[in-house]
């Protein structure tokens, strides 16, 4: 689901919750509250996807030189040795 779809769904659910008493008078506040909660979940999902997209964009724009697996393994092993020797 695209990010704009989450926002559209949230707006639709909020509008439906506001109109529910006129559409379904016996619906009660519990159904309106459920619609509001679903709208909040859609907004939370959209915000989460925005954050993930921002992180991916930042990672792709990072121009620092990468590290090979072997370099990482050596660095971690050295850190492990330092911590072990400190104990």
Question: Please, could you describe this protein's structure?
Answer:
This protein is mainly alpha-helical and 87 residues long. The protein is built from three helices and no strands. Helix 1 (3-23) packs antiparallel against helix 2 (28-61). The longest helix is centred in the middle third of the chain and has 34 residues, at 28-61. It has helices at residues 3-23, 28-61, 69-86. Helices cover 84% and strands 0% of the residues.
Shape: elongated
For the CA atoms, what is the radius of gyration? 24 Å
Overall pLDDT level: 89
Report the count of strand segments.
0
For the termini, the CA-CA separation is 50 Å
| Uncertain regions spanning at least 5 consecutive residues | none
Structural class given helices, strands, pairing? Answer: mainly alpha
Total count of helical runs of at least 4 residues: 3
Largest sheet: none
The portion of residues forming beta strands comes to: under 5%
Topology pattern, helix = H, strand = E: HHH
Bin the helical content. over 70%
